[in-house]
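Handout, section 3.2

Students often ask what a structure token actually looks like in practice. Rather than define it abstractly, here is a full record for ComF family protein. The first block is the sequence as you would receive it.
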Amino acid sequence: MDAQDGGWRRAWEGAGRHLRGAGRGLADLILPPMAHDSREATAAAGLTPDAWSRIKFLEAPVCDGCGAAFDFDGGAFAEDRCATCIAKPYAFERARAACLYDEASRSLILRFKHGDQQQFAPLFARWIERAAADLVQGADVILPVPLHRFRLLSRRFNQAAEIARPLARHAGRDYLPDGLVRTTHTTSQGGKSQRGRRLNVKQAFSVTEAGRRRIRGRRILLIDDVLTTGATGEACARALIDGGARAVDLAVIARVRNARELTM
């Protein structure tokens, strides 16, 4: 193929992409996309306007260590970490959450996680991409928190992997779905104290041999759905660092308002 033929081919492919994009735009005008949370048509990025307005998205300034929102912007000389993260940092270096875990976000996340509504995955990936833009940019590898094989069989999909995959693809980062495995079939973290959560997942994760080769010396962005006490992210981060990762960051859809207290 000579240069002229190559030029015509690129022009033709570009025109095709433009026409396909225009066609999708026209289709959306005639048949608007449906909201994930309703049968209503919506233009609010996959949610009805009412649902969208109730989500409490976390905006800067946030704690660099756990993603908690600061009550006010302390200015250029303010600490970038909350008192708890300064006194007792997590094993993961930085964390970000797209929104607050409350009644509004909980119903959407639970429908995705337990209701087999995987259409939420691309939406949540976009939320995380925006909230954790600096972590995504600095990552070498994007890796989901794994499910134990028994839980995966009952749920049929790993919700963290469904978010991590489109996030990695869009960001052009290495996606590693099988670098970390859950070796222990732990009970649910729901209803447990902070100490109980830590004990429940302690040594529950290990790096696979294939994962060990691909994480060595690299910065990992770990993806999960919710940060409650940080026990799961902590256990995963320790396993990854022990396996040779240079550093681990954590990004989630949502986090509780008070993940931990300084006195705990």
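Discussion prompt for tutorial groups: Residues 111 and 255 are 17 Å apart (CA to CA). How would you have guessed this from the sequence alone?
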